[in-house]
Amino acid sequence: MSVPLLQIQNLSVSFNHSPILEDINLAVYKNEILGLIGASGSGKSTLLRCCNRLNDVLPGIKVKGEIIYQGENIYHPLIDPVKVRRQIGMVFQRPNPFPKSIYENIAFGLRVNGYKQNLDSIVEQSLRQANLWEEVKDRLNQSSKILSGGQQQRLCIARAIALKPDIILMDEPCSALDPVSTAKIEELLLEIKQIYTIVIVTHNLQQARRIADRVAFLNRELNDRGDWVGKLVEWNTTEEIFTNPQQTSTLNYVQGKIG
Ligand SMILES: Nc1ncnc2c1ncn2[C@@H]1O[C@H](COP(=O)(O)OP(=O)(O)OP(=O)(O)O)[C@@H](O)[C@H]1O
Ligand SMILES: [Mg+2]
Question: What is the pLDDT of residues 159-169, one digit of tens each?
Answer without folding.
Answer: 999 999 999 99
